[in-house]
Protein 1
Amino acid sequence: MDGQTPADQAPDGHLASGKAGDGQAGDHQAGDGQAKIAASPLSIASIVVSMTIAAIGSGIMATYVPFELTRTGETWAASAAVPALAFGGLLGCVLAGPLIKRVGHARLFSCSMAMVIIGAVLVAADLPAAWWVLARAIYGAASNVNFIIAQSWLNHAASNEWRGRAMSFFYMAFVLGLGAGALVFGQIPTSGNLAPLAVILVTALSILPIGLTRLPNPPAPASVNVNIRKAWKISPVGLAGVLASGGLSMVVQGFTPIYASTNGVSQGNVALLMFVMQTGLLFVQYPLGMLSDRMDRRYVLLITCMLIVMAGFAAFFSSFAALSLLMITFLVFGGSVETVYSVANAHANDRADPGDFVPLSSTLLVAWSTAATIVPLLVTMISPFSGPRTFIVAAMLVAVAYGLFILRRLKERAPAPEAERESHELRTAQMPNAAIITDPEGGTGAK
């Protein structure tokens, strides 16, 4: 299934993926002398399938937790779960590298999926709402570890000719999996604990494809070296955009189901709303991303900020009585937020030298997670006094501030030379980019 034959295995049945005599033939990281086995696009199917199945569980839980907590009057916990999720993600992106070096990709993937299951069990156990907040933090840490493992494996398995397409397909499959999970939640009774049990089931299933893969373990990802000053020097617009995107994505994706539930929207319609938001990746990010390959990306980011503000105004004043119109509004809202991340990330890479890719990507990853924690935390603290629409206003303010910053930078710095620009790739702000950190060739110029 994964493009290897029995000849790729050691006599004892383990993958021959390292130096002889180290006692960990199948699980330790590949050394510099390891021959990389050529893989076809079909060989990465196990990784994509595993993460897509896991995304279905994530979509169920991301919709169920805010809906159920709001329905039972625990709105404070529904709001607190959003920054808790992001803070867990921050811990995950810092811990992933050392843990992978310690136990290897395959073992850590199973462990991180086990943490997802533990979080679902805490929700299923009918514990006080504070435990649900802890469960979301556990999921945030585990999910970022899973993303880095999957991206690392994809980067190692894919050849240069089709790596970009593979990553774009991976992001798209994951986001559509999230949407599918939201739709599945719409068909599950909220009474009892059937929803978290469904999450446990699909998470356990997601371990099987990647657990049975015959792809060799890739080298451990480069260490996460944060250098804010260098990232700012390379691309102020890129760094500021990733910061803005962290706050925007977590606020819009995290508080929308709370907002809908607070307004008495039915379970089925909340599920449909969350699914429609995920399709913004196709209908908003894709055309704007392609446009950014043909003009100064900063203008596209400025257009995107304007879209966020306009969609925010429409969402603020729209009534849930016109639900179809509101769903289209949130499709544009969510898709525009996702666009900020992907275009800002591409703009930063346009400005960077190859030797700066690893520290830049590390910094952007941590910057995203930090902003994704702070902005929702502020919204959570303010919302009890300012109302459930606070997250919409917060998103618009972030977009306005970032747009004004872009206007200033347009006057101070010329666009990147066309010959040095990279092609835009589909990326989702819900899955922070570790692609350069995990690139098998990415660290060669960074030392």
Protein 2
Amino acid sequence: MDIPKYIEQIKKTYGITNDYALAKKLKVSQPEANWFRRGKKVPNATICIRMANLLKKNPVEILIVAQKDRAAPEEKSHWAMALSAVDVMMNVPQRPRYIPQKVEAIGQELRQLESQMLSYEGTIAQNEAIQLLKTVETTIDSMMERWQIWKRDGPLFPSYLLGNQAAVQRGVKIRRVFILSLEQMTDESVIKDCLQVLDDQRRAGISAFFGFREQLASTLTYQRLVSEFRALGVKDEINAALFDNEILIFSRSYATRDLGLNSASIPITMIDQLNISWKPDHLRDLNPCPLFETRYVFEYRGERPFKAQLGRFLRAHPSDKD
């Protein structure tokens, strides 16, 4: 136990030589002081704060040490990690500038953990999605309305796609449904892009599915998902994935950035805001899995059957361009 080490520091600092004087300093009974000194009892929060004040330490440090001392053996390493994190946060060097910025980002994540949802913006959002892929063990189920970000000049290609492939090679089963619109499917160049994306997915070992928004919009499953995501502030097309049925990732908005400093710059669409949630309500209400059971979601088995299904859709939903 580590609390006795702090007790010894208090004794040394204040010249205390017996339990009577120690008890008086800690404002506890003499037997309690004896138990703390010998590691037979862990002080409560009030006494921990009192000890911290006596030693001119941050109370969080001793509170965590006390939690570690009273924790079960298999939990002690987690509290030791928490103590290390506190130590880092309290002794942050100002140079190089990257270090305080990194610690600030970690601190923001720790504050968000209580809400059971982490939020990221900009390029960091992209990186977190890739990091999350490395932890998945069994399944990924996802829906993508903004499927164009999987194109070969899109932000998810090739890093995120390669991450998916690596997960498949570990034995992870990945299902992804791409939701296509009538407007998109009346443009031959867009259809070509769509087929390229679907082929890339299948090539990476992913079970790729597709559905047409105008058909899906008639189902209660799709209507409910759209409503739930809008309630959480999703502004644009819905992109969401459920990992191992225990953590959900979804994009709230997108942004276009120009790559280049002159007239030859290239516009690139990227995820602007990303949320990662393990809140039970979100896992239940935002779960994309029910989409795969609807009659309007089809597994991609190649260009020919895709175009046959597309033809049936277009005949049932003639566009203004026809």
Protein 3
Amino acid sequence: MSTCRLLSVWIAMLASLGCASSRQPPVQTEPRAQPLFESMPYDTWRVIGAPARFSLDAGEGGATVLTGRGPIPSNGFLASPRPLGDFRLEVDVRLGSADNPLGDKMNSGIQIRSAEKGGAVGGLQVEVDPSKRSWSGGIYDERGRLWLAPLDGTDAAGEAARAAFRRGEWNRYEIECIGPRIRTRVNGVACAEWYDAVVSGLLAFQVHGGPSCEVAFRDARIEELGSHAWRTLASGAGASSGERCAWSARLAPEARGVRVDVVGAGRMALTATDGAAIVDVSFTAADGGAARRIEAVWIDGAGAVLIDGRRAARFAASALPAEARVLGESCTAARPEWLSRD
């Protein structure tokens, strides 16, 4: 074979290898944390509520530092330009100023899964609390249900959580929101776990209203992990073990929640794929014949039942929920939905 012929064959082989290589599926990589203000540039965020003063500067080592300052008459927030679904956020937090380095009588928080409400921000908040109460890392519902997961336990875990925050110093906050479950850690110490039916919303940094407040957030990094959504659930009512069943539904294996509006007194019951009872929670009728929202949410074998947003029970299950029922002699059910990943 001539040299020219041999060269042509080699070129053709290399070209075919290149084409085969280009047809290979892309390598799937795990999501990675990004600097928050690169993922969502600072100039796209907006101040909502009272006119707190925010600035973004370079700190030691080049880490970005967001500083919020008062005084302001009521709470002010720097809110993200878009809502977030599932994510992990890590950020260092320090509360205090040059003339009040320990942050006495100051307060702040990080809003998650929140929304603009009446010219301010409302929704879930991870607390920054240097008071003697020491509930930093607890979960509060701003302009809503108020305290949901305070650090008021008297066991060793509660004591460790309350001792985790260090006044006048940088404190590492880790916040994980995946589906219905929210977990918080402060300086590596587990603080709060809460299950909720709100699965998306704004992220925001709070400057608390009052005569003096200064809070800094350093090196904020976020890892976005997809999202969950509520969907209409086809269902039907029927008899169950001699009890009147106002509503029932079979649940898909990928379900991570179910909710329904109920008028009247009754019970919400979940049954596992192996037929075992998971949870059975009673509720009373609302005043004036109003509907109550009954929600059950879960992930990784654990979850909670909420009645009008208040936790009525926690549960753990070795098998997935397979059926949900609302039982009651005189109750009626409407607007059923189920929760799954988008």
Protein 4
Amino acid sequence: MSSALSPALEIADLSFSHSGREPVLEDVTLDMRTGEFLALIGPNGGGKSTLLRLIVGLLRPCSGTLTVFGKAPGQASANIGYVPQFSGLSPDFPATVLEMTLMGAAEPCARGGIWGRDRRARDRAHAYLEILGLTGLAGQSLSSLSGGQRRRAMVARALMGGPENFLLHPDSTSPEFPFLLLLDEPTAGVDAEGTFCFYEFLGKLRGGISIIVVSHDLFMVSPFFDRVAFVNRRLTPLSGPSLTQDALAALFGRHMHACPVADMQHALGGRHLSGCSHPACAAGLQTHNPEAAAGGGPGSALGRVDGEVAG
């Protein structure tokens, strides 16, 4: 990757709110390297989708700065592929899967047509559909697809706007045509096996293009990504792409009662309040906090450990 490339994304002190309402995003700062694979996780309503719309240029920040490959979002639209969480595309749209995919390569036609369908574009479209598991559906109408298949077809369409050679040379980012792919909840409606295969495919694109994936799913905290950040009004970078106790605490807070989140936090070696009711603590609290077992110190029933709260 050339050091001369502009960062894929530079955000500084960005805030956004709808008129007369509470801030949706506040003091967001993020730098993203060209060719990086970033996951944004967080609760529904935390501002993740809003942040993507700001990057695309569909919304404007109330304060702060945002550039994509060194340009304002409105000037970088040719370098961005975007798959929103909710598409306005009707399932009855009169087009085949291949035709919709080719729309991602739309450009002015010298003969006055709407969009080119040359052999090179068709070959690329077929390649993306094959990789995304849709190779046998190219000639079918959109109305025949399941929700998950339709979302994968939209990803293929978004990829058509990117550089032509990155699929063949994914480890070589093009300084002439850098590309940022934004995916908002791309595996909604897709089963677990399909979800894994989808992210495995995205992992193969690492380096060739820059990718941001948004989700509230814990699966997103995975080794597929270079970095993970938590978004809930503010943006907090997590320490790494692995599922850690810090990541769980950022998403859910720290739980001391018996529940699936507490199961995971105990498995990751979390510390807890004295009197924790989780079964893993019932037989020997002193293995978690010896001071609490003695009845005193910050981990006692009247104290807290590391700011933990009862879930």
